[in-house]
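Protein modeling request. Please complete all fields; requests missing the sequence field cannot be processed.
Requester role: graduate student
Desired output: 3D structure, token encoding
Chains: 1
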Amino acid sequence: MTKNQESPDPSGIRPRKASPGKPPTKPGARRTNQSVVRPAVNHAALAGAPAAPAGDPQITLRSPAELADALPYMLGFHPTDSLVMVAVHGEGGRFGGRLRVGIPADHGEWEDTARQVADCLVLGSERRGGKPDGIVVFLCQDPRGGESGQRVMTRLRPFAQRIRLACGSLDVPVLEALCVSGGRYWSYCCPDARCCPAEGTALSVPGTSVMAAAATYAGLRVRGSLQEIEGRMAPLRGPLADEQERALDRAATALVPKILDGATREEVGADTLDLARTVMRRLTLAPPADGGPCAEDWDDALLGHDEAASLILGLQDREIRDIAAEWMEDEEAAPALRLWRALARRCVGAYGEHAAAPLTLAGWVSWSTGDEPTARIALGLALRADADYRFAQLLHHACNEGLDPEDLRACLRAERGRREPRRKRAAAVTRPPGRRTRATRREPRPTAGSEQ
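Delivered output (452 residues):
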């Protein structure tokens, strides 16, 4: 089971208790730069913003539908085939740590998975400052094989119950558990058919909700679905994969003996870095027409099988990979990210574990440039390719702990400066977007108190 634990939510989603005379509250709202919206509903209110300074208005979401609509903005992508858990803290309530894992296909794994994710989220929250006062659960899975969304909800109900029992055994109640499937949602906690009918309730049309408007205003992005993001780094299939595997076999026969031979190892490393720079220049001069699925096909057409094989084998050397990690900002970041994703797609057949290196580099560049959701996905894929890949383990942990990548960027800049003392590089006037200035850990908002 690969966990994708999220870092603290920068938007400070926060549930609140209802005021006297109103229905009891359940979690869910997001702090944004918008006015407070409090629609009246019969279902438990789903408020959710930390105390804000005067003049900094909030959005309040008060229904399970709005909570389900907020989920992609919490994660930065639409989760597919995923269990998502969000910790809730404080008497007033605020959303904290988040955790995402794939839903096990084997029902026999549900018990262990429920216990592990509950332990992970609760212990992680305690380590960061406090035991949660509640947890919100989402089970997201689209219908398969002709089944309906309602059938998905029924099939996953035992899993939801195991999660509720696992959290309860740790003295942390599940405040709400939603199943999201086929464009509808169901609540496992609300028995009232007037607000949570058996056939489910339709989700808002994407981009039309209060949450979508607030997120757009605040500059929050949803980068497609989890399946789409993973697909950009998934191995090739069909005849192209067969051709690439043959190229990898040829490269392994030619390069592995040289890599193992200390006398020629540096030569292989230099050739690998020179080739990578050549391909990055090629990618820079030929940007894709758009960022859709065709962008991957475009980049694949610009990279030959033998070139890809040589780069993949060369990046298995730790020192070469570390030098390549220096291409993480300014004009080098975009072509480097395209190259690492393209190389990950070329790790086919028996060379699946080799994807750990380019996937880790893709995760690092994404994190360095402020795209933390994609970074976590790429690093999770790297650990799926090789669970013992140390660089991916360290970056995944640091990203999930909310550390600032600037410390690592500074180390890489210093190392590059020592190795290339005469290289003239323009000093960055500003730091990459979304980064803090000096803190090494994400600090709480001054007004909100103190997480994938």
